[in-house]
Every structure is written in C-alpha cells, then in structure tokens.
Specification:
With 428 residues, this protein is of the alpha/beta class. 42% of the residues lie in helices and 13% in strands. β2 and β3 form a beta hairpin. The structure holds pyridoxal-5'-phosphate. Belongs to the SHMT family.
Length: 428
C-alpha cells in the first residue's frame, strides 16, 4: 500500500504479549471489560484518517458525508438505549465528558459539590490534583463510617451549607445505588445543576437494573468502556433537552438550550476533531447493547458481583457497606492484616488483576491503600457464572493467605491459566 513499511515488530510483539496476558488472566478490575471483535474492527478502521470538527450536517471540513452517518447512527442508537432525548458522543474519555460539561455550565471559581475521592469518587469531581479542583471550588460528601453508605439527608445538609452551582453524583468505587431524587431536591433548593456521572454502572442503568438518573439529573455523563462494553470513550446525555433555567450563556453570550451549550463545551470548548473511528466503535457497541444478549449479560454481571460478595463475606473479608447492588465492591483488607498494594502485587503474580483502592477513612497513602476494588464486568463477558465466582474468591483467598509463598502463588497462577483455556477470548 501507499503507506507500507516493514512490519513494526517492536510494537506488534508487545500487542501480542498483551493479548496473551488478557487471555490467560482473570480480569477483575471494575473499570475494564473486553470489547467484541466488531467494536475492535470499527476502531481500527480508516475512519481514524478523517477530520470532522463540528456535528453531523454542520462540519468545518469537507468529505464528512460518510462519517456524518456514522456519528448519527451512534447518537440515534444511544438515545434509544438510554431512552434519552439528546446525546453528544464525541468526548474522547469520561474525564473529557466531565470537563466539557463543567466548562459549559460553570465559571472559574464556582462552587461544586462532589463525592469524596477517598470514599470512592472520581478525580474529575473536584479533586485538588485535577482541573475540576483547580478551576472550581470543591466541597465533598462521603459515606458514613459505620455503614459505608451515603446518608442522603447529610448530603442535602452539605448542599444547603455550601450552596454549590453544581452537585455531582456518581463514583468509581461505590457499590450501592444512588438516590437521585433526593439529590435533585437538594439541587433545586440551592439552585444547583445536578450532574450524574454513571461511568461505572451505565450498562446496568441502560437495562433498568438500577435507579434511573435521567428523570432527576439535569445532565448525565458516562464512559463507554466499562459495563457498557464499548471502546474507551465518553458520552454526554440529557433525559430531556431542557431550556437552561439558570440562563447559562455560550461563549458568544447567547442563552441557548442545554444541548447547544453542552455541544459547545465539547467542541470547541475542550476538544478539536472527534475520533470518528472510536465513534463508529461506540455505534457498534450501542447496537450490541440494544440486543437481548446484552440484557442477559448485565443481569449476569449483577448476579456475579453478588456471588463474589457472598463468597468474600463467607471467607471473612470486610466489604464496604456489606455487599453490592451493582457490578463492583470495595474490600477493606485491614482485618486480614494486608494492604491494597501487597494484595495487588500478589494477585498479579497469580495472573489475577485487581486494583488497590483507598477505602473510606483510610489511614494509608493512595500508593499503599487499605483496600482493593473488584468488579464482575470483564469475567462475565468471558462467560463465567455464579459458581465460577466462588472459585475466583477461593483462588484469591489462597494467594492472599499465602502471599509470601512463591510456590503456592505459582500454583494459583497455573490453575487460573488452565481454567481460562476453556474460555477463549479473541481469534488469534
Ligand atoms: N468518571 C468516573 C466515575 C470514572 O470511574 C472514570 C474512570 O475511571 C472517569 C470518569 C474517567 O474516565 P476516563 O478514564 O475515560 O477519562
């Protein structure tokens, strides 16, 4: 071809190695999943060559007739999937989606109220090391020490005290459902916009397995690569395209409907050209999610998470809040005398990937942590069911209990590798 060169073995050998790692190991990182062959094919397509600043039908570049249809398909499918009136499928990631929303709706120095990072929140909800904590004035709500649960009355009290311009709900490591109605009452009382970031449970929400944020939250953002099982990316949605009750203005000083404001927050606000190859992959994933197979999948994700939690509890592990409603759980390892770092490093040697995670009221640093986060989205895609979850916990427990014994860890690794041979991932 016109761009042919010798095979870049330096890169492709590494990709082959990573494929092996993903194939042989148990993937329990709550934010990860395996996309389908078709999602991968769309993402690795010629669409990566195309510039398409703007929106379908309103571009700043010629030759967009085809990508216009691709992007419109992604928009139409995601609107059907979540039952929403409006969506922008261009954000390059979840962080970008949140940045676009905040740029569109807030001014520097405005107050925001988010879920504490150290209790399970996300960096983009006001953390000091993130743009959201640098540009805006953050305050936080968290979980109760005794229960590990959010006390909704206390969040309302915090909102009354802080009077933020935006309340953000959603998390990276909260295993329980959200009371969006209570948060909306608080938002209305103090004149705040309510943003739900459903990055983690969006797939379960799409299929009605968890409370819906759309009737209560002004704006909803999500990543597309977690339970939603699409390519890495972000998405902004509006349950209904309401008409800007706070009189927020576009950069040109116009008061426009919320959809127009958010579109401008993405482009030109925080991004240039959209990644149409990724948008094509999003369209494929949304198409898959509209099908029955995906409905069965998310039900199994939830059942598998419950089976994991049950077996961890049987084996004396301390799960924050005592269980899970969604696809993930946070385990406090202090009662087992272990740190998150030690657990992560031990399990990786057994080809089991999880991530260390701060637990609420953690006394250790984010590099060490007292906990681990575990999710069922990827192993469910792999085809594993409840009985397999019991075995997973057994293997994890064996490795953690004998973390200093290299031969036992290596025996766990062999069991994992042999087991997963029966669950092929991608064709070679
Ligand atoms: N929001 C939440 C709640 C998340 O959990 C994540 C990802 O971990 C993000 C946003 C950021 O997504 P990304 O990594 O695609 O920027």
């Amino acid at each position: 071809s016109a761009v042919a060169a010798g095979r870049d073995t330096a890169v492709f050998d590494l990709i082959a190695q990573e494929r092996q790692r993903q194939t042989h190991g148990l993937e329990l990182i709550a934010s990860e999943n395996y996309v389908s062959d078709q999602v991968m094919e769309a993402q690795g397509s010629v669409l990566t060559n195309k510039y398409a600043e703007g929106l379908p039908g309103k571009r700043y570049y010629g030759g967009c007739e085809v990508v216009d249809q691709v992007e419109q398909l992604a928009i139409d499918r995601v609107k059907e999937l979540f039952g929403v009136q409006w969506a922008n499928v261009q954000p390059h990631s979840g962080a970008q989606a949140n940045a676009a929303v905040m740029l569109a709706c807030l001014s520097p120095g405005d107050k925001i109220l988010g879920f504490d990072l150290s209790h399970g929140g996300h960096l983009t909800h006001g953390s000091a090391v993130n743009f959201s904590g640098k540009l805006y004035q953050p305050s936080f709500y968290g979980v109760e020490k005794e229960t590990g649960l959010i006390d909704w009355d206390k969040v309302v009290d915090t909102a009354r005290r802080e009077r933020p311009k935006m309340i953000i709900c959603g998390a990276s490591a909260y295993s329980r459902d959200w009371n969006y109605a209570a948060l909306r009452r608080a938002a209305d009382e103090v004149g705040a916009l309510l943003l739900a970031d459903i990055s983690h449970p969006s797939g379960l929400i799409a299929k009605g397995l968890l409370n819906s944020p759309f009737e209560h939250c002004h704006i909803v953002t999500t990543t597309t690569h977690k339970t939603l099982r699409g390519p890495r990316g972000g998405l902004i949605m509006l349950g209904q395209d309401f008409d800007n009750p706070f009189g927020l203005k576009t950069p040109k000083g116009e008061i426009r409907p919320m959809s127009a404001l958010l579109d401008s927050g993405v482009f030109p606000g925080t991004q240039g050209g959209p990644l149409e190859h990724v948008i094509a992959a999003k369209a494929v994933a949304f198409g898959e999610a509209l099908g029955e197979g995906y409905t069965r999948y998310v039900h199994q994700v939830q059942k598998n998470a419950q089976a994991l939690a049950k077996e961890f509890l049987n084996r004396g592990y301390d799960i924050i809040s005592g269980g899970t409603d969604n696809h993930l759980m946070l385990i406090d390892l202090r009662s087992k005398g272990l740190t998150g770092k030690l657990a992560e490093n031990t399990l990786v040697q057994a080809d089991i990937t999880i991530n260390k995670n701060m637990v609420p009221f953690d006394d250790k640093s984010p590099f060490v942590t007292s906990g681990i986060r575990i999710g069922s989205a990827a192993v469910t895609t792999r085809g594993l069911v409840e009985a397999d979850m019991t075995r997973i916990v057994e293997l994890i427990d064996e490795a953690l209990t004998h973390h200093a014994d290299a031969s036992r860890i290596s025996s766990v690794r062999q069991q994992v590798n042999e087991w997963l041979q029966a669950y092929p991932l991608y064709q070679a």
